[in-house]
Amino acid sequence: MMQTKKITTHRWSELNVGCEACHGPAREHLLWTKNNEKNKPALSKTKHAGFDFSFKTATIENQIEVCVPCHSRRTGLSSAFKPGQQIMDHYMPSELRAGLYYADGQILDEVYVYGSFIQSRMYQAGVVCSDCHNSHSGKVKFEGNKLCTQCHNVKGSPRFKTLTKKSYDDKGHHFHQTNSKGAQCVECHAPQRNYMQVDPRRDHSFRLPRPDLSEKYNTPNACNNCHKDKNAKWAAATINKWFGSKRKKDRHFTETFYKARQGDKTAEKSLIAIVNDQSNPAIVRATAIQLIRGSELSSGSAIMAAIKDKNALVRLYAADRLIDLPITQRIDMAFDLLEDPLRTVRIQAARAVADLPVTQLDAEQNAYIKKGLQEYYDAQEMIADTPGGQLNLGVVYTKRKKFDAAEASYIEAIKLDPAFIAARFNLANLYNMLGENKAAINILREGIKIAPKEGELYYSLALVLVEEEKLDAAAKQFKQAVALIQDRPRMFYNYGLLLQNLNRTDEAGSALHKANKLNANDPDIVFALAIFYAQQQRWQQALPHARHLISLLPKKPGPKKLVADIQAQLK
Ligand code: HEC
Ligand code: HEC
Ligand code: HEC
Ligand code: HEC
Ligand code: HEC
Ligand code: HEC
Fold first, then answer.
1. Residue 32 pLDDT level (bands cut at 50, 70, 90)
2. Dihedral, CA of residue 326, residue 275, residue 344 and residue 332, to nearest 10
3. Which residue pairs, CB below 8 angstroms and at least 24 apart, start in 9-18?
4. For residue range 70-114, what is the model confidence (pLDDT) as tens digits?
5. Centroid of ligand 3 to alpha carbon of 282 (angstroms)
6. Cβ-defined contacts of 28-37 (< 8 Å, 24+)
7. Which residues are near ligand 6 (CB < 6 Å)?
8. Max avg pLDDT among 67-81, 152-166, 186-200
9. Deepest of 389, 405, 423, 480, by most Cβ within 10 A of its Cβ?
10. Alpha-carbon distances, residue 100 vs 115, 450, 491 (angstroms)
């Protein structure tokens, strides 16, 4: 679904953000301001100073969720959120998605604080925004390390019993000149990233610097932010020297998320383990559920457990994954979720079963789905004047097989924003599905003119052209696509097969090898390489790939036969 990118700006009636955005409706507060001076009771004596919502009595979640409409990357479903309500009746916060976050959860695109902060140990321990920020000016409460040593010091903090009592603002911890830039807590634990050159944002996940992950998983680290002339290995070795190499490392999901994002199925088992480990932050567990792609039994039962999870974010992304399951399981599970207390979860569940044939369900089931979808349509109506709203409608109309309505929604989305790639992409898919490839090609070519750097458009166009058997034209589009999107193994794989078809053997070989380099464990790719060499009778080169295939598909007879055939040729 569309992600709203722009932060809602401060066009509020009052100075900055209006009081009501954080404090809720202010009936009594307004009455108070209208009272003449003599009758005015002290503001502090009125209920919550006259506002409906009080931070003093609110839960940690409620306090932080007040900030979510404006300080998160999320999809909006309603504009009626009021402080004190559950955020997920109104918004779907994004998970740690590729393109928004690095595989280790650090900020990549502009994500506006919330998704980072809820990853942090501090959030889990009950630290809130107002521990560091003056809620009314937005400024930090103290300059420099004092902000952090409020709690992180030799005495600890009475509110947080688990804190290690230790002197952190000390060369014994940070190993830099006291008071220098390198000794600032935030420089190592909340490094800055600049957006559009002028917008510095601090990573609110307050994590430990992990240069040891940087080389393998392409993640940044605080140390090399400053020490640009040194590499990550140096930084990792330095930390080991400082803190000892045998120290307890925090558990990390980086490798798993990195692999899963590449489509590597071997990540499945650890994804499930991450979901099941309740001590992980909810947003990490939700991300793991979202990345589960397998139709294996174990994935199914992980999703089944997750739809009953205490945490709504986990349920939300489990609902999203129902589409992977066999129809009967999907129906059963969707029914639990269609009664979920939170609206976004209900809606997501309805979307996941929207494409089930009406005739396969009984009347009660159909009624439930209809009700869930109605909530969805209502929510989209509120944002029907946005390209995102129209896109969302198009997606569900397509699932309900209301193709004319879907087409109209996508066209409207493109009219509202001609550069909106997702809508073009979906419209082209719809035309393709309906056998109208000419229309699909037109819409994609038009998109390429508007957004010539958008690899996805070339890729889609290439695939449609292959269907139309215009192979040379398709190869041209593929070439553009792989130049723009360099990390998608399946794309190189498809390109490789096409080039092979066109007898452009050398190029085919390098595309297939590139695919294999990006994902060494995709059986299709490994098979393609084995066959690529076998066809050229280069048996020596074919053999290792065929053997690797046996290890990937140990239960299938095909790979064993392939190895035997190749070995026979070698004799
Ligand atoms: C960005 C969110 C935000 C906005 C906007 C905001 N406040 Fe607050 N306000 C808070 C938070 C958070 C607290 C409690 C924590 C603290 O004291 O820092 C608070 C505390 C208060 C309190 C103390 C009583 C209580 O509920 O804890 C009063 C009174 C108050 N705000 C009045 C106002 C008024 C009047 C406005 C508009 C001019 C306003 N606030 C705007 C976030 C906000
Ligand atoms: C109605 C929208 C809205 C709500 C609700 C809101 N903010 Fe903001 N806030 C903004 C905007 C807009 C900015 C300015 C843009 C920016 O710097 O990201 C801002 C800026 C800030 C800043 C940076 C100020 C600075 O000087 O750099 C902090 C800190 C902040 N908000 C904290 C909070 C907290 C904490 C809450 C919840 C209690 C909250 N905000 C709720 C809209 C909102
Ligand atoms: C209101 C108290 C409070 C303040 C202020 C505070 N912290 Fe924390 N911090 C905590 C608590 C509580 C924990 C969790 C300790 C635990 O593991 O139980 C924590 C944990 C951490 C961790 C460990 C993270 C991990 O993954 O192991 C780091 C790093 C950290 N804080 C850095 C900072 C920095 C940097 C600042 C200042 C910008 C700061 N803290 C300000 C209370 C605070
Ligand atoms: C030069 C970088 C650097 C600076 C500056 C720095 N730290 Fe750290 N900090 C680290 C590293 C590296 C670790 C991880 C050590 C480990 O793995 O055991 C760490 C670990 C931590 C931890 C978690 C482990 C523990 O001991 O509880 C906390 C909390 C923490 N730092 C707080 C702070 C605070 C507060 C400041 C500022 C007063 C600060 N750090 C300044 C690099 C830094
Ligand atoms: C442990 C301390 C701490 C906590 C807790 C914290 N912040 Fe911050 N925040 C900072 C620091 C430090 C900065 C950088 C301020 C500066 O450079 O002037 C910052 C900056 C910001 C900014 C400005 C833009 C940016 O991203 O750098 C916003 C907005 C913001 N915080 C919002 C929030 C919200 C919302 C919460 C709660 C969900 C929150 N912060 C919790 C320490 C904290
Ligand atoms: C905000 C910038 C900054 C960050 C972040 C930072 N440093 Fe430094 N570092 C410096 C500066 C400036 C010096 C030189 C002055 C000094 O010693 O404080 C330095 C000095 C050093 C030195 C000694 C001199 C040398 O170059 O051999 C080491 C080792 C070092 N840093 C390692 C680290 C490691 C490891 C990290 C991450 C955990 C880190 N630094 C994070 C700025 C930074």
1. low
2. 30
3. 16/138, 17/70
4. 999 998 887 788 999 999 999 999 999 999 999 999 999 989 999
5. 18
6. none
7. 176-177, 180-182, 187-188, 209, 222-223, 225-227, 235, 238-239
8. 152-166
9. 423
10. 10, 23, 21
